[in-house]
From TrEMBL:
InterPro entries for this protein: FTHF_cligase-like_sf (IPR024185), LUD_dom (IPR003741), NagB/RpiA_transferase-like (IPR037171)
SUPFAM superfamilies: NagB/RpiA/CoA transferase-like (SSF100950)
Organism: Streptomyces fuscus
The organism's place on the tree of life at top rank: Bacteria
Lineage: Bacteria, Bacillati, Actinomycetota, Actinomycetes, Kitasatosporales
Coiled coil regions, renumbered to chain: none
UniProt domain LUD: residue ranges: 46-209
Gene3D superfamilies: NagB/RpiA/CoA transferase-like
Protein name: Lactate utilization protein C
Pfam families given in the database record: LUD_dom
């Protein structure tokens, strides 16, 4: 008997007591989160884990957000920036960089010429330091966050921050194109030599933004 046959046999036995033709609910007894952190502590944990993955973390409020984005683009020397169709226009109101809108006809070579991209996110996971994009209008299509070398991702605090992966999954639609980001793109060879920017942006800047007073 092959390994494949053994695995399929176990699956059939596990589902044998379920009604034919119906999906059987799977019991999930794992913890939804570890510990009982308050909102501020959860956000701090997110910031620490993002930094641990070599993302650059900034904190600001909604009033200062446009000026922070403008400063980050200027410090990067970005002359052009990709902007998703549903990005709040006030976020880019202070930036001097030329806005580039994603079009279906754009090639990867054309997108590679754009120096930065600014997006929102769907949810941010504190325990893993992960940002999740789901292709919503303020995030755009997946390719615009994988080709440019510099990604500024805005996270609304506290409403978009959750403690754990199970909590994030409850908010996400599995039918949408989900992109899970833990730090800038990186890989390493068998000798553990780290190379960044291989499968996506070399630099990830995460802005944790709270409502202004």
């Amino acid at each position: 008997m092959s390994s494949r046959e053994r695995i399929l046999g176990r699956v059939r036995r596990a589902l044998a007591d379920g009604p034919p033709g119906e999906d059987t609910a799977v019991e999930r007894g794992y913890l939804r989160q570890h510990g009982d952190l308050g909102t501020a502590q959860t956000v701090d944990l997110l910031a620490d884990n993002l930094a641990d993955y070599r993302a650059v973390v900034h904190r600001t409020d909604t009033e200062e957000l446009p000026y922070l984005i403008a400063r980050l683009l200027a410090e990067r020397g970005s002359q052009s920036v990709l902007v998703p169709p549903g990005l709040p226009p006030e976020w880019m109101s202070a930036a001097d960089a030329t806005r580039v809108h994603d079009r279906e006809v754009n090639t990867a070579r054309e997108l590679d010429k754009v120096e930065s991209v600014v997006t929102g996110c769907a949810v941010a996971i504190a325990e893993t330091g992960t940002i999740v994009l789901d292709g919503s209008p303020d995030q755009g299509r997946r390719r615009i966050t994988l080709v440019p070398d510099h990604h500024i991702c805005v996270v609304r605090v506290p409403e978009q921050v959750v403690s754990s992966v199970p909590q994030a999954l409850e908010r996400l639609d599995p039918a949408r194109p989900l992109t899970w980001i833990s730090g800038p793109s990186a890989t390493s060879d068998i000798e553990l030599d780290r190379v960044e920017g291989v499968h996506g942006p070399r630099t990830l800047e995460v802005v944790l933004v709270t409502a202004g007073t």
